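just leaving the lab so this will be short. what follows is a protein written twice so to speak, once as letters and once as structure tokens for the fold. can you read through it and tell me how you think this chain folds. anything you notice is useful, everything is just below:
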Amino acid sequence: MRRVGSAARLLQCSVLALGLFYFIGSAAGQMAAMVSGTVTDKDGKPVEGARIVFHFEGGISREFVARSDKDGSYAQVGLQAGSYTVVAEKEGMGPKSAKVTLRLNDRLKVNFQFTPETLKSDLGVAKAFQDGVAASAAGRNDEAIARFQEALTLNPKCYDCLYNMGLVYTKTKDYDRAVTAFEAAAGVNPKAPDPFDGLAAVYNAQRKFDEAARAGQTAASLRGSGGGGGNATAVFDQGLILWNAGKIDEAKAKFEETLQLDPSHGEVHYWLGMAKLNQGKLPEAVQEMEAYLQREPGGRFANEAKGLLTQIKK
């Protein structure tokens, strides 16, 4: 009988460990999200050296920083799932911000364009705004509001200050002030859809479903079409608004459209399962719930989905 020497066994163990490490590392890389995009000036030309900061809003203060190259392109990998405020700025320009919510393995494009309204006439505006975003991401909401108000004192037309103030007021459930801030942001930049997304969320939280639907439709129209202009997140949010308004069939259509726009969307399967359950289509409801749990095993509705599957399969 041939015996394997200790050196051979050690080599085999090393290879096995290396393979296991590679597998774990590959899985982790696949689960992490990535955001990429371009930064351009008011004429559409690439901006090199812009600083793009990702403020994580998961209850802890965490930042990731990327910079644009000579083509104006940037990419940030290794982002965990959750909500982020992304801020782009460069000396003499900015700040410009965007709000994104990432799921596992997401690959999102977020582009920034510095327009005349975002040129820094006062460095104090940019600093106050950046401080406000950082405070909001860390959950220091009162401080965030104070910093945004400081920036607005210096520049009352700071669109991003007004929009982010609306987000903070929404988070703290100060809905009247949130509406005022979003409406003011829309007044500064009437072509921006994001303030209307914010209004839709506020009205939805207040159960003002007709107003939420109108705000959502306005946001979709500003993006270029009645279906959200290819924005899966916007279409999904419209579906939730319709669901809360009791318009189940219309909500289901939006959820199906979401999946067409973003086949990797996880949570939409839960709502499609709920819609199929509402229609009495139990086998299809099971398929959707199982798809949801496969894509988001730790999702916010995971326990509900497991409970429903247990009941359906009895």
Confidence is low (pLDDT under 50) at residues 1-30, 225-230. The domain at 33-118 is CATH 2.60.40.1120 (Immunoglobulin-like).
